[in-house]
Amino acid sequence: MAAPMTDAHRRFLQVLMSHGIMEGSEVRTLHRRCCEIHKVYYAHDKLEDFISTINSHLQPLFMQIRKGMSESNGKTHYALVNLAETEITKMASDYTENELELFRKTMDLIILSENGFASSTDILNLADQLKTKKMKKKEAEQVLKVFVEDKWLSERNGEYTLHTRCIIEMEQYILSNYHDVARKCNICHSLAIQSQVCESCGIVMHLPCVRKYFRAQTEPRCPQCNDFWSWEIPGTKQ
Fold first, then answer.
1. Into how many domains does the chain fold?
2. Domain of 225?
3. What is the rounded CA–CA span in Å between residue 139 and residue 126?
4. In sequence order, which residues have a C-beta less than 8 Å from that of residue 219 and are 6 or more positions away?
5. What tens digit of pLDDT does each residue of 34-71 get?
6. Using one digit for the tens of pLDDT, what is the confidence trace for 175-186?
7. Which pLDDT belongs to residue 82?
8. Secondary structure class of 195 (helix, strand, coil)
9. Are the beta carbons of 6 and 54 closer than 8 angstroms?
């Protein structure tokens, strides 16, 4: 029998819904605040139990609060995910057909790339090749800006990658639709877009997982095949 939802749970869910995705430290603060406001028992190490109670009540609605990791800095994030529609179709109510097509093509470029990024030049070159309705480059730039604002894409120095929210929400979609190339990280077992690949056995690891795993090793070796890890370890440059 699921534990009952309190006003603290309901407030927590409301705030998370309004944000779509929140960083772990923000979620921990929110947990404490909600318990304090509604005078509900609070323990800093009971966040997962607190979320589990909410998830048990969200189950009939095919929704769930899920935890994921930012591929850029390794920080934990929490997002509210719609389980009933795991595909890009869930975005259909917010975007036009040609905007969705641009998003799909951008996703193709990112997932099929070697480093998990696609340049704005490559994406904008797709704008006038859309089957649904061609886009002018100026228009496509505006659409990309909206995808970033809505936390489907992240942009850094003219390079685009999938936002943490997108990875958490669309992990199953990506794994099933890109099964030839989409891989899970050998360390944290979640989908890895920005990653390094072992040249000997082919396992992949998120950059933050690489950094953490090899931190204490003088000679980095693959956790799977024990061969020398030939990539530069992120964060070790002086």
1. 3
2. 183-237
3. 12
4. 228
5. 999 999 999 999 999 999 999 999 999 889 999 999 99
6. 988 988 999 999
7. 83
8. strand
9. no
